[in-house]
Amino acid sequence: MMVRYAAYFVAALLPLLLFRWFAPVSIGEIDFWLLWLGAMILVALPMVYAEIALAYRSSAAPVAGMQTLTREADASPLWRSFGWLAALVAIVIAALVISGASMHMLQALSSMQMAPDVMPFALSMGLVVIAVLLSLLGVTPLPIGLGLMLLGLIFGAVQGLPQINFAFTGVSLGEWARAVALALVSVGAGTGLYWFTGVRQGEDGTRSLRASKQVLPIWGLQVVAGGVALGMSSISMPPIAQLLYGAGVVFVAGYLLHYAAQQLAHRFGILLSMVAVLIIALLLVAVVPDAWLAGILVVVSSIAALLLSVFAGWQMKISHLRKSLNFSNEGLYNLWRIAIRLIVPLALVLALIGWGMTWIG
């Protein structure tokens, strides 16, 4: 049963996991909210359609599915790199959120006079090991993680919600870059998670549903969860709330590492894949600063999303995706095809340029 609703758990969790890393300095920027909503419609929505359509067409997870789809489309094996990049993105997300959670958990324990005498990176490495062990449980950590994170936010909300003063500010390419980044993390674009959960739903007997019918409920949940997460991204949580939230993050990271290991297992076998995932995640939390991890996530997920959009829009046969999506009318399919072929790649390129200008500045 949990497999059937895995996509909805993922949709609710991704904004809660990542919005604190990419929210603007001032949450009250009305123009930023509008840019984020525009990115959710123009970038995120077509990407979710593409992922689920490719899942239906390939009947396999991203790494194996891209091999099938590239052969079917007679496309270059280069496009198969999406599957490997998607696995890397999941590991980077897990490392980033675990690193942040360990810092906040140490702060919470310190305020409770219970802080252990360990460095933050040491605690992060210990939490990575726990997350890898939790990855053995498959989908099970998702609802547990969501419940713990929501409990933390509720405790924080009881202490008082953040005061937001809304105002219009100047729109810039850097602001568009942040909006697109938030849209990408809202939907997990570039991770292949909805592709993976779509295939797993098929194993649970739900593939008789049209792919297009599954997208809007998932996307709608992402918009709601994203709006809540954005509005609460600056909330101040008491120590117990930080501990609950951090524990939930570790559970969710366990699922992300499970997903990454399952992708690598297609080539290397499950045991070697789990060892590789553990080593990569440990190195990321021990060596790479959080700000760099966030930058790596932006670049790698944007490249993966760009690969997926170009492949779905320009390499796949029109008849194959039309059949997989099974829209109620041809006009909707044509709108999606224009978006995935032109609007999404252009928006992603502009966002990468905006991030580059921000980092240089």
Automatic annotation (TrEMBL):
Membrane-crossing segments per the record: 32-56, 77-98, 118-137, 144-164, 176-196, 216-237, 243-261, 268-286, 292-314, 335-360
Its keywords, alphabetically, are: Membrane, Transmembrane, Transmembrane helix
UniProt superkingdom: Bacteria
Classification via InterPro entries: SNS_sf
- Name listed for the protein in its UniProt record: Membrane protein
Origin species, per record, is Psychrobacter aestuarii
